[in-house]
C-alpha cells in the first residue's frame, strides 16, 4: 500500500468555495456528502493525482482543532501547492475571479512559473508549473 498526503480545509460556505476551486483552479468534484444546514459535511475534490477534502466550518470535535483565515487576521499555518501545466492560464482565471493575488505570476528561481493567491475565504494557494517530484530525481 502506498501513502499520500491529502490536505483538509474548512470553509464558512463550503458549497460556494467548492465551485470556486473547480472553476478557477481546475479541481473536479469526486464526492459530496451533505452536512447540517444544507451545506457540505464532507467533499473530495481531485486535481490530477492530487486531492483536497473540504467541509463546512462546524463546532464539532474536529472543528475545535481548526480555524479559518478570517479568525487569524489572514495568517496561515500552512499553504497548499498545486502543480499545473499552464500557470499563466490559471493565473488569468484567478485574477478574473477577483481573488487576492499575494504573489504575482513570475518565473521561479528553481524552475517553472508560479503565483500565489488567497481564495475568497482567505486560504493561500500556491500554483505553478514546477514539479518537485521531477526536480528531486
Helix-strand layout with pairing:
Blueprint: E1 8-11, H1 14-25, E2 28-34, E3 40-47, E4 50-56, E5 80-83, H2 87-97, E6 100-107, E7 113-118, E8 124-128, H3 132-136
Parallel strand pairs: 1-4, 5-8
Antiparallel strand pairs: 2-3, 3-4, 6-7, 7-8
Q: What CATH architecture label applies?
A: Roll
CATH class descriptor: Alpha Beta
Kindly report the CATH topology. 2,3-Dihydroxybiphenyl 1,2-Dioxygenase, domain 1
Q: Name the overall outline.
A: globular
Largest sheet report: 4 strands, mixed
Strand order of the largest sheet: 1-4-3-2
Number of strand elements = 8
Distance between the termini: 22 Å
Mean pLDDT: 92
Count the domains. 1
What percent of residues adopt helix (DSSP H or I)?
A: 10-25%
Pick out the low-confidence regions.
none
How large is the share of residues in beta strands?
35-45%
Question: Could you describe the 3D structure shown?
Answer:
The chain is 20% helix and 36% strand. With 137 residues, it is of the alpha/beta class. It has a single domain (8-136), classed as 2,3-Dihydroxybiphenyl 1,2-Dioxygenase, domain 1 (Roll). It has a 4-stranded mixed beta sheet with strand order 1-4-3-2, covered by helices on one side. A 4-stranded mixed beta sheet has the order 5-8-7-6, with helices on one face. The chain is globular, with a radius of gyration of 15 Å. The model has no long low-confidence stretch (mean pLDDT 92).
